[in-house]
Specification:
The protein is about 35% helix and about 15% strand. The chain is of the alpha/beta class. The structure holds N-carbamoyl-L-aspartate (NCD).
């Protein structure tokens, strides 16, 4: 299901495959929390090539590899790597492919990970490409929901924020469709609504969804609220960003009408859309979600490299 496989988009994975990944994650998480040392990837090397900013994705992949006894090499920033001399992406990938057993790439261009996968012989993992895909973030998101609610099936899930430019949100919506949620609310300012291609996909899959421009009305129905930041860096025009900036905030006041077991998720980083005062409440699942990034990525690396 995973052996030697590229990880480019979440829809390449079946429900069975994701359930296998979650099972392996549970085993790894137990080992981690009981302080057991793991060495399944001893002798393996992972290369990270991040052409866009990252904290969690890169560092949790590196932590995952090191916690499995493997090693990591990282492409240096542009100014001090051969990209400054004009080396192409294709040649850079060829090099990493000859050094490492697996490559994790993040790039501002949609399709960059697929392009890398066509060049590399070793598996390529998409750590986020432009506005499109972020499959490993979605694996973590779905795993977090399973931990919070026991199952993804039958839940009412709100996805709030920048559904137009946010790859984490887009990938999450596609990922939900692999399971059987009761309903998905797509909540965004009208300028940042979900792309038609994603809506068509949900329709084809027979997933019940509804678009909304404010979260207040639908909040009492939700089991999960997935909050995302407005992707300022992807706006072609800064004036357009100013028009939507700060247009939604999830805070304690809003959550007064929430179900007691509502789980609030966020792929992070947050800017101003998620109040710090929520961190102490039982709704806050986003730091656990970020923490699960390590065991989920450990499970994924292990299944890809060891089958
Ligand atoms: C996300 C990303 O890079 O797409 N971050 C992450 O990987 N956790 C979300 C974001 O930047 O808003």
């Amino acid at each position: 299901m995973f052996a030697d496989k590229d990880v480019l988009t979440i829809t390449d994975f079946s429900r069975e495959a994701l359930e296998r990944l979650f099972e392996e994650t549970d085993v790894i998480l137990n080992a981690l929390t009981s302080g057991k040392k793991l060495d399944a990837l001893n002798g393996y090397i992972m290369a990270t090539a991040f052409f866009e900013p990252s904290t969690r994705t890169k560092m949790s992949f590196q932590t995952a590899m090191l916690r499995l006894g493997g090693a990591c090499v990282d492409l240096p920033p542009e100014e001090i790597s051969s990209r400054a001399k004009g080396e192409s992406l294709a040649d850079t990938i060829r090099m990493l492919d000859s050094y490492a057993d697996v490559i994790v790439i993040r790039h501002r261009l949609e399709g960059a990970a697929k392009f890398a996968a066509e060049i590399a012989e070793h598996p390529v993992i998409n750590g986020g490409d432009g506005t499109r895909d972020h499959p490993t973030q979605t694996m973590i998101d779905l795993y977090t929901i399973k931990r919070a609610h026991g199952s993804i099936d039958g839940l009412t899930v709100g996805v709030l924020g920048d559904l137009k430019y946010g790859r984490a949100a887009r990938s999450f919506i596609l990922g939900l469709s692999i399971f059987k949620p009761k309903k998905i609310y797509l909540i965004s300012p009208p300028q940042l609504s979900c792309r038609p291609e994603v809506l068509h996909f949900l329709e084809e899959k027979g997933i019940c969804y509804e678009e909304a421009s404010t979260v207040t009305k639908v909040l009492p129905e939700l089991d999960v609220l997935y909050v995302t930041r407005i992707q300022r860096e992807r706006f072609p025009d800064p004036v357009e960003y100013e028009k939507v900036r700060g247009s939604y905030v999830v805070n304690e006041l809003l959550l007064k009408s929430a179900k007691e077991n509502l789980a609030v998720l966020h792929p992070l980083p947050r800017v101003d859309e998620l109040a710090y005062s929520l961190d102490q409440t039982s709704h806050a699942w986003y730091f656990k979600q970020a923490y699960f990034g390590v065991p989920v990525r450990m499970a994924l690396l292990k299944l890809i490299l060891k089958g």
